[in-house]
Amino acid sequence: MEDTKMEDSSNQREMSHEEMPETHSKGGLITMPFIIANESFEKVASYGLVPNMILYLIKDYHMGVAKGTNILFFWQAATNFTPILGAFVADSYLGRFLTIGLGSICSLLGMILLWFTAMVPQSKPPPCDLMTQTCSSPTSAQMTLLFFSFVLISLGAGGVRPCSLAFGADQLDRRDNPKNVRVLESFFGWYYASAAISVLIALTGIVYIQDQFGYRVGFGVPAILMLLSALVFFLASPFYLKQQASKSLLTGFVQVIIVAYKNRNLTFPLPNSTASYHHKRDSNVVAPTDKLRFLNKACIIKNPEQDIALDGSAANPWSLCTVEQVEELKALIKVLPLWSTGIIMSINLSQNSFPVLQASSMDRHLTKKFQIPAGSYGMFNIISLALWVIFYDRAILPMASKIKGKPVRIGVKLRMGIGLFLTCIAMVVSAIVENARRKEAIRSGFQNNPTAVVKMSAMWLVPQFCLNGFAEAFTAIGQTEFFYSELPKSMSSIAAALFGLGLAVANVLASVVVSIIDDITSKGGKESWVSSNINKGRIDNYYWVLAILSFINLFYYFLCAWAYGPTGRQATKVKSIAG
Fold it and tell me: Is 0.85 topped by the overall pTM?
């Protein structure tokens, strides 16, 4: 990073003010603190609201556990899916700067409304009558206010999260810089580490404030943090490199599919016949690639006089597409198989409820007076992820480069594979630890008492969290870097949102897996593997199922990686120790 600073300053001194391109006079490392702070504050604020929200709905809105859980499930699903919408809006209409700005404002308004529900008694049902043991249900207006706050927070996350990474990369991405790959790799790592630290602060600091000072303060602090997030982002507006949005990518994808189908009976032009394909003016891409060749028919010019307008564009974009449109859709289709390999890992990472139940039944004391809350063991996942990113970026790569005598990096596909292998091992460790815990509980006579604490330290749960943290560090960062480098630059926000979409799909599939296992194992009046009484259930067998699925997914990844072929960086022969 320091070499990049010196090189940038040297280049600027060599160019006069009049000769310096506008795109190189803005952006750069000076914008990084503002962009990273914007999303970090947003993550601390939004993630800090989630852990105790079920308690807020049960106690203050008098909801049952099932109803409250369903509401939170849909809220989290919406929060994970909206980044895809935000990515398309950013790339196609508003640009990343406006999308992040509007997203920050939406999140701020949503958190203010949520804080309003805690501050104003009339915004939620009155307290339960202790004499009659009756509780009033929330009114439609009260539920609407609550849901509207959730919607705004989800929309805000959809604007900020998919665009911040791509917006930051826009400020640093200099394709003519020989050290560009190293700069981007370092940025991706530090960006993800800061996001992980933000989540860690949210799961500890914000939750602690809510427990100690109540929801009036506990919801007010996230609102203040979100205000700071918006202010910090807009403060650096004059320094940003703001790329304009292009035409709608989603519309372009639909046009390619429809036009290719309409032209399905056309014959392909002769090889090396570029004049038969429609492309943008001054484009370096004048002919489509041979992969997914059937889509190439969408950009074949049938009649130049009728198909091409006077300005060189398509007279009817629903009858003729550009080579660029076709190649963008191909690029997206091409990465989807490798994208799908990360879903199983995300399912493993989403297993939050069972570790909490396990930790609750184990000895959580670090000292005689202090014990770690059962819901806080997930922090070891975040800690291991952040520490690995720092160690990898500041120790492993510099040391390897010094030994080799040349720049060394680990290829993105190898990193993704390592992460998927580690999540397999994490599930195996989870099954072994749970089997030992269950045997100890039964040996102690606690089979019918799931709340009893066994004589086994909850620190035995730490290795599985650390392994999943390392797995996420390898695969999540590797996938994000892979998407950004392999997709066209016009699709960079979509590239950043793909991993979030994988999380959303994983949340839904994780629920499906639990439901299927519960239905199958509880037939005939048997105790379900995922019983609420974990001493009677077989959570260890459930973990073995996830481990088997993870190993199958690993072989699926090998197949997808082989079928994909060399990445763009390998094709350009960037020095690496693996592909």
Answer: no
